[in-house]
Specification:
It is built from nine helices and 14 strands. A hairpin with a 2-residue loop joins strand 10 and strand 11. The chain is an alpha/beta fold. It has a six-stranded parallel sheet with strand order 3-2-1-4-5-6, sandwiched between helices. It has a three-stranded antiparallel sheet with strand order 7-10-11, covered by helices on one side. Strands 12-13-14 form a three-stranded antiparallel sheet. The chain has a domain of about 140 residues: Rossmann fold, CATH 3.40.50. The structure holds NADP nicotinamide-adenine-dinucleotide phosphate. NADP nicotinamide-adenine-dinucleotide phosphate binds next to helix 1 and helix 3.
């Protein structure tokens, strides 16, 4: 069966995801962008990456009616660049996501939605609220990227390969209140908390929190890390693989929170989120998670309804 992966926004992130899907012969891809020529131009470039054995293709458009029949819609659209904080353009991004939500609801109400645009947790929340799609089919992708960054810094700090690190999870907001979960991490089978002191722990937290700021001092914006994280989710959905990662999802009592969208560990299958996994947190991690949830909730409530 041929599936359709539609990607809204043909900027850095949208095109990097499209390139991975097409070059790995995952399925047909539709690039939809506000400026039509950009979507067409990017698809004309990416189309040359189709393997000769692939039966799939890619097209560009600005026409939302072409979303009809989409199995997965990935939202990477953005109205501007934030400089100091991911919530900087929150009002215009929320207006944008509401408009996109309306069009998706009209054209492909059965699709599984991956939200990538920032502020991630707030936009995922408003998308789900506007469409009333099942919360298990509206998936905000970011905590898995934060977790990749956490694992990377642990490997650098302890001079070990990333493959020797287990359970390097980052939960909470995709923002400054993110919560790296040290209590579950093991390195070569040993608890990380027996290998680092509090100062080293704080320094790792700060490195993960400020990763994007450091990256911005070398390169305008990130694209490849998030693209691979999104690709893995699309691959799991299309090829019925089980994937355990943290994503942002609307909570209804899990982790003691409700009416908020926040990064928690889940199991992804072909249907979207199959399960929100309960995870052991120590007392300070539980407290930090609570503060993070309240930070997101405050942002949601600050939007003029
Ligand atoms: N979740 C994560 O971990 C993560 C990581 C990296 C980036 N991000 C976020 O991902 C988003 C995209 O980043 P980027 O670097 O790819 O941005 P970008 O290069 O500026 O691209 C954004 C694209 O969205 C298009 N667009 C804007 N409004 C639209 C609408 N209503 N419908 C369709 N297309 C629309 C723009 O079209 P025009 O050509 O008309 O301008 C532009 O091509 C940002 O919000 C960024 O913060 C998230």
């Amino acid at each position: 069966m041929v599936c359709l992966i539609s990607i809204i926004g043909s900027g850095r992130v949208g095109t990097a995801i499209a390139f991975l899907c097409v070059s790995n012969a995952l399925d047909d891809v539709l690039l939809l962008n506000r400026t039509k020529d950009k979507a067409i131009g990017e698809s004309l470039d990416i189309v040359n990456a189709i393997p000769s054995t692939s039966k799939f293709s890619i097209h560009g458009t600005d026409d939302y009616s072409k979303l009809a029949g989409s199995d997965i819609v990935v939202i990477t659209a953005s109205t501007g660049v934030y400089m100091k904080d991911r919530t900087e353009n929150m009002d215009s991004q929320v207006t944008m996501i509401k408009e996109i939500a309306e069009k998706i609801k009209h054209n492909c109400p059965s699709a599984i939605i991956l939200v990538i645009s920032n502020p991630l947790d707030v936009l995922t929340y408003f998308f789900q609220r506007e469409t009333k799609f099942s919360r298990f089919k509206v998936i905000g992708i970011a905590s898995s990227l934060d977790s990749s960054r956490f694992r990377y810094f642990i490997s650098e700090k302890l001079s070990v390969p990333q493959s020797s690190i287990s359970n390097a999870l980052v939960l909470g907001e995709h923002g400054d209140s993110l919560v790296p979960i040290f209590s579950g991490v093991s390195v070569g089978g040993k608890a990380i908390l027996s290998m680092i002191d509090n100062d080293e722990k704080d320094s790792l937290i700060s490195s993960v929190r400020n990763y994007w700021r450091k990256l911005r001092s070398y390169k305008s914006r990130s694209q490849f890390g998030i693209a691979k994280n999104a690709y893995d989710v699309i691959d799991a959905i299309i090829n019925s693989k089980e994937l355990s990662i943290p994503v942002s999802v609307v909570l209804e009592g899990e982790f003691g929170e409700k009416d908020v969208c926040i990064g928690v560990p889940v199991k992804i299958t072909s249907k979207g989120i199959a399960e929100i996994k309960d995870t052991k947190l120590d007392e300070s991690e539980r407290e930090s998670f609570k503060i993070s949830a309240q930070t997101i909730r405050n942002n949601i409530q600050s939007i003029v309804q």
